[in-house]
Amino acid sequence: MRVLKYFFAFTALLLLSVASVLIGVSDISLSGLLSGENATARLVLVEVRIPRTLALIFAGAGMAVCGTIMQMLARNRFVEPSTAGTVESAGLGILFVLLLAPELPVSVKMLVATLFALAGTSLFLLILSRIPLRTPLMVPLVGIMLGGIINAITTFFAYRYDMMQSLGAWTTGDFSAVLRGRYELLWLTLGLTALAYAAADRFTVIGMGEAFATNLGVNYGRVVAFGLVIVSMVTAAVVVTVGMVPFLGLIVPNVVAMVMGDRLRRSLPWVAICGAGLVLTCDMVGRLVIAPFEIPVGNVLGVLGSAFFLYLVLRRRSRAA
User: Fold this and answer.
1) Structure letter (DSSP) for residue 185
2) Are 299 and 243 in contact (CB under 8 A)?
3) pTM
4) Which of 126, 140, 192, 195 has the fewest other C-beta atoms within 10 Å?
5) Residue-wise pLDDT tens digits, 173-232
């Protein structure tokens, strides 16, 4: 039965991927590609459409898994990279590199962004450990405030050194500039997602609290550090390549958890599949609504994520009542 469910899920993801490849301003038809007569269509397919679709899949799966890990580390359903200061910290790291050493390769920029994201997320968890949290809503509020402070610092320096246009490139998740040779960094997220799945049982135990994890013989500090590294690297890779993809790590893990529970060994593959499918769907919606122009994926996800966040808040309040 489980194999059949995975079969249908991967089939649906494959159909979404095919639709993503075929949708766009340039006319690409299967008959033209199979006949080999349309060289322009083949060029667009290889250089633009397939890289874009792969980037959407990798970014969607990676950011959704990151949201799940962060919710386990913070033990809060409202936490994900864009509500914990992680994305904003990665953006500050990229600006830091562009100001001091703009000639560095993309891989080094990602490394610096990873270090900044790791520092920002660690600061977020440190703040949570120092303040009384009387309600779960305090946790994302702290993260949003921290992200706002970091974003203000980033905007100040970007304005001071005339880099506001560059800043806008990574504050909105936009896949329209993805080409072959400019998205390969996202393959790293695939490996990091696999590592997260390998440690899924440990993340599940960590989500039950430090005392519980220690009693079971799990090294709490080491697992938290491992999770932070995965989250920081995936976030940095996505931000460097396509910009911010907000609320994805909030929507998908919560929906999957409502259906499958909190055991990550079982739910994490579905989080990755649903994350990829949601980003593919949002991208196609953005390309079709005002065609031939397009709405960035980040904007579409921002609307959906805000509505879903409000739904979670109201749902929790109704249960408390």
Assistant:
1) G
2) no
3) 0.88
4) 126
5) 778 788 887 788 889 888 999 999 998 888 888 888 888 888 888 888 888 889 989 999
